[in-house]
């Protein structure tokens, strides 16, 4: 009998040992797959990352970080439905995970669902004790998209207090005044935008986007010399900026320097052959320069690119008018 008991105890010990060995092996396998997923994500191999994370998930479905990183990978692959499902799984497991809410905000913001984005950004901000500049920035830019410029500026100022050296926030403040100028109090808001863009350029003189936006601001004020100067600054940084050449064309057109305007529009089109508005601008420049046939061809090229835009019917009618003028 004691021998039988000894055998039973030995079997139990072996069984328990085998159980823990299997569990240990499973844990090692999970860590290996998870780390391979992290490595794949960090090297931008997002499909591979998804594969590794899903395999790891089969071994252990109780860790929220696996769902979080799977969601981030899906987000990079533009698989929004799968990303959202996995972020929601993280929130289900860890309701106070502010990062999951923040990324859901980014996801809905990228889909132009600004109202929903603000809800998620705000939840993330609440969980981060209202001290997260990224959340405040997200709330602000979603409000800009909705035309709520005062709310946007309020949140950007809060974000800047938290992160005073953040150039992205400073640029966003200028951009918000820039956009607000289209809604009213034009001169005041344009001047404020120019002031903040100028401050931004004092520390980042060659910034392409800031130079371009300040050129647009001066164009709104009808200051064509300044528009030209800042567009030229853009081209010093990026000689292939089609939008800078297009804006130069507009400036020269408004200065009645039509030959120069035509050259700038042609340059924009040579860089970006699908730049539809550059073709309409070129058409009007040709027309004003009494080059009617060239104007018609430019407008027709616009129609090839934009046959269903809000301008389509207007351009079609304009072409017919020009043809009638040629025939008369």
Q: Which key terms come to mind for this protein?
A:
328 residues, 17 helices, single chain, mainly alpha, 81% helix
Proportion of helical residues:
over 70%
Structural class of the helix and strand makeup?
mainly alpha
Quick check: average pLDDT?
Answer: 90
Distance N to C terminus: 122 Å
Strand content: under 5%
Q: Which regions are unreliable across 5 or more consecutive residues at pLDDT < 50?
A: 15-22
Radius of gyration: 29 Å
- Largest sheet data: none
Order of helices and strands: HHHHHHHHHHHHHHHHH
Tell the overall outline.
Answer: elongated
What is the number of helices? 17
- In total, the number of strands is 0
Summarize the structure in words.
Helices cover 81% and strands 0% of the residues. It is built from 17 helices and no strands. The protein has helices at residues 2-42, 46-59, 64-76, 80-93, 98-110, 114-127, 133-145, 149-162, 167-180, 186-203, 208-220, 224-237, 242-254, 258-271, 276-288, 292-305, 312-327. The N and C termini lie far apart (122 Å). Residues 15-22 have low confidence and may be disordered.
